[in-house]
Amino acid sequence: MLLDYYKLLEQPFGVTPDSRFLYLGPTHREALASLVYGTESNRGFLALIAKPGMGKTSLLYNYLSNLGDKVRTAFVFRTDCDAREFIRHLLLDLGVDLAGMDLPAMHDALNKLLAEEMRAGRRFVLVIDEAQGLEEQVLESIRLLSNFETPCSKLMQIVLAGQPQLADRLASPSMAQLRQRISMVIRIEPFNQQDVDAYIDHRLWVAGCDTPSLFTVGARKLIAEQSEGIPRNINNLCFNAMSLACALKRKSIDRDIILNVIADLDLEPLKEKKVAARTSEEQTKQAPPTFFSPEQKALVLNGWASRLAIAGALLLVLVWFALQWNRDKPRAAKWLGGVATATPSPKSASVDQAVPVEPEGIKTVQLPEIIRVMPGQTLYHISIEKLGKYDNEILEEWRRLNPEIGDPKRLRAGQQLRIPSAGTPSAVAPRAFESAPNAAPAKTGKTMSKSL
User: Fold this and answer.
1) Which domain holds residue 72?
2) Which of 54, 249, 366, 394 could serve as 50's disulfide partner, Cβ 3.0–4.6 Å?
């Protein structure tokens, strides 16, 4: 239907590597010339690198057809194999009977064939397409094939053709020996806007189209942008555009038709829908059972559980210090040698209503300040900064409050330390009082005043 509608002899944008439709852009012509020159110069290994869809297989067929009768050729494209299977594919392409042959016998048969070709005055060229799929072991076997040589020349020319992954494989350290044998690395670059126009016109002309303006200027520009200059992408866009235009009874293919084709060929929306459906299904299957009420979930999520736990711990610490103060207050009054203390009011029987009055010279017990050690800080630096002094008594107080301190010069960054209060009596004083209960009041008072 499409051929009749546009009066074509054949499909202009087919998918087979037909040499009649081969369009040689600037980099294609340069690559073909390099392949021919490398073969005539007997350079051994050549590498052809191109993105998928750039037409390297069509270029290789054209290269082999131009070598003439003086060259025996073999074309291997099955690369998902091991070393033995690769040699087997090669000999089958050469028409060698492999019945009862093991791997050494196949190598002998190949060596014999190469010698016969040399005596007949013919060179031998092996082309390996899609070489990026070869395993390293197979690539190493191919490297060993280059050892088939005479003192004057190589018996085999090898062309490794593949996608950019082939360049990555050859650049790996394990492939250093093979990389050193590759004398030429040939690349094919994508088409520019002018090449895309010439490519479309060439294929339409070969197919017998008598209307070069079938694709408008705007359509061609959009094709060049969306195809990224890759011939296979150009073929897909042009074929679908001609099919859509034929269905719409359009004799000219404009930008709007190309936009519709691009939307039809876009797989991203389908991919997103598939992923969204699978994610929803997985969440439904893997949803954990609910053990908490909505109010409890909200409490946990908002962090109230952790805040309540911290507040409870602080409350327990405050109660403990209050009890310690009430227990030690009579003892402190006794050792002060009759120093008057305030008598609690009748309402002080309740802990919540107690209003403690500090004895003269004694400050209320406070919670020690806690700091976090910064990187590089020592106990000396912290003590000077926080207390204004550093001596053995201060060090002992630091150790009493922080038993985990080891070497004061090597504190762990992030470690939390309780700071001794510079304005309160050292904790050493109460221990001294307790160890000497029969000491004279006057002497005790003197000692206490010094520590204060």
Assistant:
1) 26-188
2) 54
Which of 265, 282, 317 terminates a domain? The answer is 265
Residues 167 and 118 in one domain: yes
148-184: pLDDT as tens digits: 777 677 788 999 999 999 999 999 999 999 999 999 9
For residue 284, name the pLDDT band (cuts at 50, 70, 90).
low
Q: Across the strands, what pairs with 127?
A: 75, 159
